[in-house]
Amino acid sequence: MALARRDGRRRLGLLLSGALLLAGCGSAGEERAEPVTAQPSQTNSRSFAPGAAGAGDPYFPSYGNGGYDAAHYTVKVRYDPEKKRLTGTTVLRATATTNLSAFNLDLAGLTVRSVTVNGVKARHARTDDELVVTPATGLTAGNGFVAEIRYDGQPAPLDNQLLGEGGWLHTSDGAIALGQPESASTWFPVNDHPSDKATYDFEITVPKGLTAVSNGVPKGQSTRAGWTTWKWSEGAPMASYLTTAVIGKFRVTTGEHKGRSVYSAVTTKLAEGAPDRSVARTTEVADYLESLFGPYPFDAYGGVVVADDRIRYALETQSRPVYSAVFFGQGENTEVVAHELAHQWFGNSVALQKWQDIWLNEGLATYAQWLWAEHSGESTVQHTFEQQYATAPGQVWRTPPGKPGVANLFSRSVYDRGGMTVHALRAAVGDAAFFTILRTWAAEKQNGNATTAEFVAHAERISHKKLAKLFDAWLYGTERPPTPKPL
Length: 487
Known about the structure:
Blueprint: E1 2-3, E2 31-32, H1 40-43, E3 49-50, E4 68-80, E5 85-96, E6 100-106, E7 111-117, E8 120-121, E9 123-127, E10 130-134, E11 144-153, E12 158-160, E13 164-170, E14 175-178, E15 198-207, E16 211-213, E17 217-224, E18 227-238, E19 245-248, E20 250-257, E21 260-267, H2 274-279, H3 282-293, E22 300-306, E23 313-315, E24 322-324, H4 335-345, E25 350-352, H5 359-375, H6 381-391, H7 394-398, H8 412-429, H9 431-444, E26 448-450, H10 452-463, H11 468-476
Helix pairs in contact: 3-4, 4-5, 5-8, 6-8, 8-9, 8-11, 9-10
């Protein structure tokens, strides 16, 4: 994710979306959740218990859920922009990881009309933004199950005083579902934490004349009775915050590159020009990054440009990043494209296990942006590092990027000092080992999750060097580390 800088380029300023869970009552027509215990008929000598109402992330304890492993979501929604109303059906295919008498899904604001588990009606209740599902019989550890949830209402974004607004945003010509660290739960029920990735199919039905863009490979569209259904499929595991739905009027460009689909869309609110030229270079930038990091990890390329004052950032939504128009106000900008495309390797394919390690996403993407600038003849990586090192304000050095705290999750320390950490690693191990570290990290962790500790161990294994002191100083220290030797 890239944040719009105040100088119109990439200065960190406005914090992006994401939110703590909203407090309050469940939607009208739903039960309030009560403690659930396994029924005798469920146990059969086994002990069944409710799954955890959180994934255990120290920064966001209530994000996500425990007790099951999501495998695939089929999300079908119909959205009426005039009434700001969404009607949806989501089917979750998952495997129980413990003996479950009940399990939770994250769902904000919308009203649940019915739930079935394995085709049998299930009880459902709400506690704030938690949907509690109680199957008719217990779910045994190791066994798969299918849950179908029908719901409707007027979706709304989640708001967090520290991190800003994210989720479903109504617009003048449609809607935008976007945000980090959470947004998906505002338009479909989900295990909303990156530690539980899944594959997705989306069917988004909107009034005829509007385009609905989502993740992955386009699977066609069909129109009936004044409504058009747009189908999308993401076949690689994806963290829930990387899902998106962008509805409106767009200039759409399609094609194919290296056997993969290319689909980009620029809002017609903007005159044709710099945004179109920038996203048109997506495959060129991706090919360069592929030469450094290894094969591009997904089946589709593309980008979406939106114009909305509430969105002043770019987000690495999987296979198809979404860019704010502010990045193109001074002309063509491929640096932000490089940043978001680098995330396809670092942040998307290799996803976080916990939010504290956000520097793994942003530091590596920032460094990729520096590499692209050098490749484009704008500035050498060494010069960029020296500028950052010399001019970074004191807050960057007082905030450890490896443990920034919730309030500083998207601070300059995470981005700029994160990028400097990557450069310090390169200086310490040399180019051959450094690029081997990045390529093998992307390959070995592809489609999975990772932690900082695993990255440090990986770097030491590949380089045959002890690097703990280097990473401790750059990631966890509260003073400016000594400058590394020039490249």
